[in-house]
Amino acid sequence: MLHLSIALHCEAHGIIAHYGMKPTGGHGRAQFFEGENARLAITGVGALNSAIATTALGCRYPNTEAIWLNLGICGHLDAPIGETFIANRISSDNYRDTLYPQLPWKSAFNGIELMTLSAPSADYQPEQAFDMEGFGFYKAALAFASTEFIHCIKVVSDNAAQPADPHFDKKAIARMIKNHIPAIETLCTNIGQSRPRKAGSDWFNRFSERANAQFAFTETETHQLNKSLAQLDALFKQNEKDKTDLLLSTDSNKKRFLTQLQSAIDHSSARNIC
To answer: Which DSSP category does 99 fall into?
Structure first.
């Protein structure tokens, strides 16, 4: 699961469309969106707004396996407009702390020091990007994940040759960020693969092996199967799991098989609601 904190709607537009997200309400100034594999908070500008919205997102959707990303624009002395960086050091003009995200794998994005400012500035510094949210986001996200699963990705929107314009082109920013979605997805895949895998129960492993032997699942269907089996493993007693095994011998249609698994989950979940 991907959790994103993004300051502006124009920065989030392509992400919302890509993951098929729908609005799910808000908290203060923050707006929440949710899709099957991603959740997002549009936080508003500033480190404090970002921290509040990130905390609200984590409390609203608790998930210890989530990857946390802050995605947005930044300023840089001389990097070309549209170049994208991943923060390897995060500091703030309001706090003495310095944060160090872990980057245990090679990223398509170059690493950079990110300085979070409390107000817009054209005082560009060498070898440094600056924004207004990264530090607040990162400090808040540390309550929900460890440093290797929290990252700030920044797209250069202004530099010394083309300083920031208060009336910036929202469509241009949306396009710049949208262009980097494939690389962001690759990054998230690498992050996810670095997470230690939990071994499933004997039933989970046996059922998964039998199902994969019986049906030719696509990657998406395999993800759906594993998600369903994990839920069944947690919800069902052993005698109920044994009954679920009968689906493998009575159904030869994989789509109907997956639908029946989901129906079993829905039925059990409804039964367990107090």
So the answer is: B
